């Protein structure tokens, strides 16, 4: 029977990696899965023992901290051999936020590992060991909210004029009309109204027609559309993934794009460094040829960035010589 402290650690792993970020339902959950998939394709692992898939290695390492190890015999009914799972430190941490013991869990087991004595390798997502899933969830939530705003804007931009009659207004009729608008009904609505509308133009359409929607509001849709693409571009820029948009707000000078390129390299370069350190240890401990590198898509983008840097250097040299 595990003590309360260990149980809290296990619950923390589950909450951080699985339940909170990966199993949301609805639009937010869908965006979460899409962005998680993109995140898992930024690096490619090769030569992992037991044919362990690169995609799942990244899924677990992205939780912030993971461990590679051999599953002890008899501990699991469905898992065996080499695996990688998210983990958490246990015990008192030193000044670098490290300990030599971790606790981890698989689909049907949990286990403590001593990094000094057990056949296990720690894999850090980055030097600060923070999770990518909090960032993932924020973008998923904002994209979902943007979709909701677009949906509501479309609904309340529907043209639905309501002719007025000459007897009393009935609240139930207005409620029914609002439901018709929300549910996509296209019928014409007529209400009774004995109120006098005071305008400078007695014969204007607003004297005889009540408008609960604003058909001109749909003109603002492009702002939401631009914001949607801006969110995606912002996410991609963090992780050095190519994303281009024609939105005017995103059109920058070449030098500004170059500065963004440099900024976007910092995070992934640090993440790659941590992964390569782990891959080298995995190769030594498990007698394999484990390697990890940027995915082909990221490599292509890096080559473009490097070419731009070289081009900019040559341009500056030409100016100085002139």
Count of separate DSSP helical elements = 8
Low-confidence stretches: 197-203, 248-257
Let me know the number of strands. Answer: 9
Shape from CA axes?
flat
Distance between the termini: 77 Å
- Kindly report the spatial arrangement of strands forming the biggest sheet: 5-4-3-2-6
Helix content: 40-55%
Measured by DSSP, the beta-strand proportion falls in: 5-15%
Average pLDDT rating: 79
Largest sheet: 5 strands, antiparallel
> In sequence order, what are the helices and strands, one letter per element?
HHEHEEEEEHEHEHHEH
Computed Rg: 29 Å
Structural class, please? alpha+beta
Description:
With 322 residues, the protein is of the alpha+beta class. 48% of the residues lie in helices and 13% in strands. The chain has eight helices and nine strands. Helix 1 runs parallel beside helix 4, helix 4 runs antiparallel to helix 6 and helix 7 crosses helix 8. The protein is flat, with a radius of gyration of 29 Å.
Q: What's the topology here?
A:
Elements: H1 4-22, H2 26-40, E1 43-46, H3 54-61, E2 65-71, E3 81-89, E4 101-105, E5 110-114, E6 120-124, H4 133-155, E7 162-163, H5 171-182, E8 209-210, H6 221-238, H7 254-286, E9 291-294, H8 296-321
Antiparallel strand pairs: 1-9, 2-3, 2-6, 3-4, 4-5, 7-8
Helix pairs in contact: 1-4, 2-3, 2-4, 4-6, 7-8
């Amino acid at each position: 029977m595990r003590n309360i402290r260990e149980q809290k650690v296990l619950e923390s792993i589950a909450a951080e990696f699985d339940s909170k970020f990966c199993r949301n339902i609805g639009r937010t959950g869908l965006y979460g899965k899409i962005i998680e998939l993109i995140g898992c394709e930024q690096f490619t692992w090769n030569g992992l023992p037991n044919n362990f898939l690169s995609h799942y290695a990244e899924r677990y390492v992205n939780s912030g901290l993971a461990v590679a190890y051999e599953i002890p015999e008899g501990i699991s009914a469905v898992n065996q051999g080499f695996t990688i799972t998210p983990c958490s430190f246990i015990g008192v941490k030193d000044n670098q936020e490290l300990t030599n013991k971790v606790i981890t869990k698989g689909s049907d087991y949990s286990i403590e590992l001593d990094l000094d004595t057990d056949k296990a390798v720690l894999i850090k997502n980055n030097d600060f060991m923070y999770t990518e899933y909090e960032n993932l969830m924020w973008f998923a939530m904002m994209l979902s909210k943007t979709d909701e705003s677009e949906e509501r804007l479309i609904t309340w931009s529907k043209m639905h004029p309501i002719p007025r009659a000459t007897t009393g207004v009935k609240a139930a009729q207005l409620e029914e009309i609002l439901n018709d608008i929300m549910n996509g009904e296209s019928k014409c609505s007529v209400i009774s109204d004995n109120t006098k509308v005071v305008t400078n133009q007695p014969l204007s359409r607003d004297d005889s027609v009540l408008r609960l929607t604003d058909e001109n509001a749909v003109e603002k849709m492009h702002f939401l559309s631009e914001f949607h693409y801006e969110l995606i571009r912002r996410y991609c820029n963090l992780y050095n993934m190519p994303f281009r948009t024609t939105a005017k707000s995103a059109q920058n000078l070449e030098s500004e794009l170059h500065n963004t390129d440099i900024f976007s390299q910092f995070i992934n370069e640090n993440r790659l460094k941590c992964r390569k350190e782990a891959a080298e240890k995995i190769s030594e401990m498990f007698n394999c040829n484990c390697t990890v590198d940027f995915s082909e898509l990221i490599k292509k983008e890096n080559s473009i960035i490097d070419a731009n840097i070289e081009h900019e250097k040559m341009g500056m040299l030409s100016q100085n010589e002139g």
